[in-house]
Amino acid sequence: MTTLTFSQATRQVNSLSVGNVIVSDVSDLTPYGLLRKITNIVINGDQIVVQTVAATLEDAIENGTVENSWHLLPDGSATPLTATSNIYNGPSVNSTASTNSTTGFYFDINDVVLYDKDGNLDTEGDQITADGSIAANIGFDFMIKISNWKLTEARFTTTLTETCELEISAKLTVAEVNKKVEIYRQYLNPIVIWVGFVPVVILPVLTVNVGLDAEVSVGITTTVTQTASLTNGVGFNNGTWSPITNLSNSFDWEPPALTAGCDVKGYAGPQLSFLLYGLADPYGEVRGYLELEADLFKTPWWELYGGLEADVGFKMDVLGHSISDYELPLVIGYRILLAQAPANKILIYYGNGGPQPGSASDGQVNFNQLKVHYESKGYHTDYTDSFPTDLKVYKLIILVAPGYANDSGINFFTAQQVTAFKNFMTAGGRFVVMGDHSGFFGMNTVNDLLVNLGVGIRQNADVATNDADSCPPLTDITPDQITAGVSALDLSASSSLTLSGSAKSLLRVPSGWTCGAGPIGATLMAVDQIAGTAPRPGSDLLVIGDTQVLDDYMFSDPAGDGIADNLKLADNLFEF
């Protein structure tokens, strides 16, 4: 109940009676307008005390229509109020007002803490945080029609064009987190529409929320950027509510960095609500989200989704009592798979100047038997010189002596190809580069690729081991997932490798070696990782100084002494 006190009796005040509806425009005393029904009148000396309860527009308007559309801006037709603005300026918010009508609102999401295990913001190793930004143009359309004191039509829609970038980072194991953080709230200028003598006062309220629904069993980082244009709303006509929706959107993403299971859904977006005479009424909320599902025991073991959800509702406290409140969660519910862990597919790629199958009658630098071997184990294998449009479908990629046909630079990998290889490894794939001896068979192309990938392995222009399966198997092997169960490897002519940084030597010229130039201890096979990838195995790059270690010629065993553990190496490359 609200009490209105009048200090003097005027003609209008004297005409008041119980059951009347009092309406008022925006003023210093009624910043949100006034819509009240009189329940009692008391005369107290010179004062007239009027007791009231909330009224509805059905009480105040016999016949009338309110209809208009607006475009909200931090600066312009919906300039934020000076006196009644309520802006939450936490450490994670930066609202930039713009005088450009095409710019609209901009919000930085900077290190918003969605979970903090010990409650101490200074200890960051136990937190789940959100980062990113939202740039949005926001508008709305509002219509009500009252006939014979009853609401017969209503419509509320929000229009939104936004780009939302969201990164979720978790540094700890958490059983379950469900958290929603309001990072921004702003009351915009009230809008007054006159229906006859009745001022309908609308106060738009813009909030921005960031939230998380998650179960995390290890640290993760994942990022999705969504650009969307949408209409989200609901209409009432002929006694029926119906949704009003339209959506077009696109996504960009970075492969997640993670090492074990999780189920994470992070979201961010604006909510536009209306206060009619200061009371809650229509609202619309939009949430762009990323969702990462990971399970080490499933195939594929992780999947990254992008999506958008929108809710809308009408609360009838002010509009009228003839119609019940209506809320429609997920008036828009859109979800799309953006990326997943590499499937059980293998690519043997001889493009960028690699050796063509059948170019040698004795099976040298042909890989048909390797393809047959992998497919006998159920691993679909593409053996091609056509660069795939999507490397994410592969778990293992083997490059066969790129530049073998021409090493002058015309077969160097493009920036787009290099980026594709990086994304493949970041997503968990294994990348194998096979070079060859003497610097004649693509060394420049191989080394240019290794430089652009940023790994610490380079191929040398030498012959560390002799040609044609003429040497005994090599046994100086470093234990690793790649070499598990491998005690000896049979190579043909191989170059040595120079290592730096985090590169790890896996195979070397053994002590006492006399079958080639060596030198003793020279690395013939090594593994490294590009920056920003998850711990091995997987997400790694293996370089071998001999292309023939897995080719048809080596599998034919021309020396008749067996092929050592070369097939086991082939299996280890994929089975990680």
Brief digest:
With 576 residues, this protein is mainly beta. It has helices spanning 11-14, 57-60, 368-376, 415-426, 443-453, 552-555, 566-574; strands at residues 2-6, 21-24, 34-44, 47-54, 64-72, 105-116, 127-147, 150-170, 174-187, 191-195, 198-216, 220-237, 240-258, 262-276, 279-294, 302-314, 326-340, 345-349, 380-384, 396-400, 430-434, 457-459, 476-477, 497-499, 504-508, 523-528, 540-544. The strands form five sheets. An eight-stranded mixed sheet has the order 19-18-20-21-27-26-25-23, with helices on both faces. Strands 9, 10, 11, 14, 15, 16 and 17 form a seven-stranded antiparallel sheet that branches.
What do you see in this structure?
The chain is mainly beta and 576 residues long. It has three domains: 2-55, no CATH class; 64-340, no CATH class; 345-574, Class I glutamine amidotransferase (GATase) domain (Rossmann fold, 3-Layer(aba) Sandwich). 9% of the residues lie in helices and 47% in strands. The chain is built from seven helices and 27 strands. The protein has helices at 11-14, 57-60, 368-376, 415-426, 443-453, 552-555, 566-574, and strands spanning 2-6, 21-24, 34-44, 47-54, 64-72, 105-116, 127-147, 150-170, 174-187, 191-195, 198-216, 220-237, 240-258, 262-276, 279-294, 302-314, 326-340, 345-349, 380-384, 396-400, 430-434, 457-459, 476-477, 497-499, 504-508, 523-528, 540-544. It has an eight-stranded mixed beta sheet with strand order 19-18-20-21-27-26-25-23, with helices on both faces. Strands 9, 10, 11, 14, 15, 16 and 17 form a seven-stranded antiparallel beta sheet that branches. Strands 5, 6, 7, 8, 12 and 13 form a six-stranded antiparallel beta sheet that branches. The model is unreliable at 76-102 (pLDDT under 50).
